[in-house]
Amino acid sequence: MTQPSFPMPRHVGAVNWIGLSTLIAKEIRRFLKVWVQTIAAPVVTTLLFYSVFALALGGVVRMVGDVPFLTFLAPGLIMMAIAQNAFANSSSSVLVSKVQGNIVDVLMPPISALELTAAYVVGGVVRGALVGLVTALTISLFVPVTVAHPFYILFHGIAAAMLLSLLGLIGGIWADKFDHMAAVTNFIVTPLSFLSGTFYSVDSLPPTFHFIAHLNPFFYFIDGFRYGFIGRTDGTLGTGILVMLGINLVLGFVAWSMIKRGYKLKA
Amino acid sequence: MSAPDANTLPAGAFRPHMRRQVPAFFWQAFKTLLVKEMKRVWKMAAMIIIAPALMAVIYFVCFLFGLGPQRGTPEGDAVLTFLVPGLVMLSILLRAAENTGFSLLYAKIEGHVLDQLMAPIGAREVVLVYAVTGTVAGFISGLFVWLGSLLLWPQPVAHPLVALGFAVLAGLLMSMCGLLTGLASTKWDHMAAYFTFLFTPLSFLSGVFAPVAGMPPLFAAIVQANPIFYAMDGFRYGMVGQGHADPAVAALIVLAACALLYALSARLYSIGWHMKS
Prior knowledge:
The complex is a heterodimer of chains A (267) and B (277).
Chain A: H1 17-33, H2 35-56, E1 63-64, E2 67-68, H3 69-100, H4 104-107, H5 113-142, H6 150-174, H7 178-194, H8 207-215, H9 217-230, H10 237-261
Chain B: H1 27-43, H2 45-66, H3 78-110, H4 113-118, H5 123-152, H6 160-184, H7 188-204, H8 217-224, H9 227-240, H10 247-271
Helix pairs in contact in B: 1-5, 2-3, 2-5, 3-5, 3-6, 3-7, 3-9, 5-6, 5-10, 6-9, 6-10, 9-10
């Protein structure tokens, strides 16, 4: 057959599937290549927290409601690992690309802002899910992990990972230096994730703290995720689902419009 | 024209008549490097004060609410009393190791480690400088965590001098550990791996959060094989007046570990391990 002797414009449809899947594959390979840091390290850290709490109890079986404390703790810790790693993935990916300059490689091709947002979010969700899965399997060696409502586990796991990936994406676009990112992690993500009811039932808190805990979006996804495992909830699940969907939409829009305008990306 | 007068030569010019004898311990070089490292600590003050203090408050709140009213030691509320020295010590340990390790690795990666390898400054001065600055960084960080803890859980210090001594010893111990990881690493990934898989577990499982008496026997044995446990235990004796081991024995063990690590890191530095290739 005759080849045209001049370059033909490539036609990109409504969704650039090749571009999207390539970027997703790149995002996943990026963290799998350093799996010791991105998968093994968070699992070890989570188990460390778990053992510290187990040891601090000194063999006394403590109950939260009618659930043993260690069974209560496990889903919260798994969710914390999911959330922190989803955040770390998209934020570090964007920031490293920006600092090293290879961000142009994703800005130049015909990939739309929506596809870019989606690819980074999928990368973060996959990493969060992997870390969560490995952590859950490891914890289940020590404490039986029950599954009460698989749908809630899936929904809250994915929605939380999406939320944190979007937050990481926004943070990564906003930050100019690694110090900025460290500040966001240290002063926003870590406190919110620790003070979210992972370690305690918020029902047992003094009224002021009880109110503050309900302002923390992390509370809703940890609570819902835990409900999926042990069938016990501190709050209202419906509100939680609405809160998570709402925040995801808002953050998704913010991230999309930042990429669309090229905020701090296209100087 | 005769040779130019020595006083008019530029600063770095070759002066063959100058005596370049380096004493057994080169104070001038020690002081210079110490000032440089201290300036680094000063620039990172926010990182070694604010972030650890915030983390300590978060841990404290988590334990406070997490363990609820029934806290599982025979001494009742002792977990929280227990926790304060633990958190202060944790901050000292991690900050001391981080400071020295990161400083050296940064110098290696950026290449300015050359400046201290070329200068007539030996391993003994360099290692001492790192040990001192790491200890200072850890100490400052621990001090602020302790001040913060006074707001949440005021309690008197039983033996201030013992506490101070063990804080310094723990800082020294971990500075040495940090220095060794700085020597052993050539990439940030290596450093991060040492911290995640070695130092953080060692520090967390040194009886920081729980009395060794309440642990299962196997765990208790592991914890007691950890030199950091003795630093922790002695420090706790200084802070709350009760410890598991005899403080004098604990001090000796920590000192011995420090001496061993000092000898090892001085040797590795002097042969230029992972630095002079």
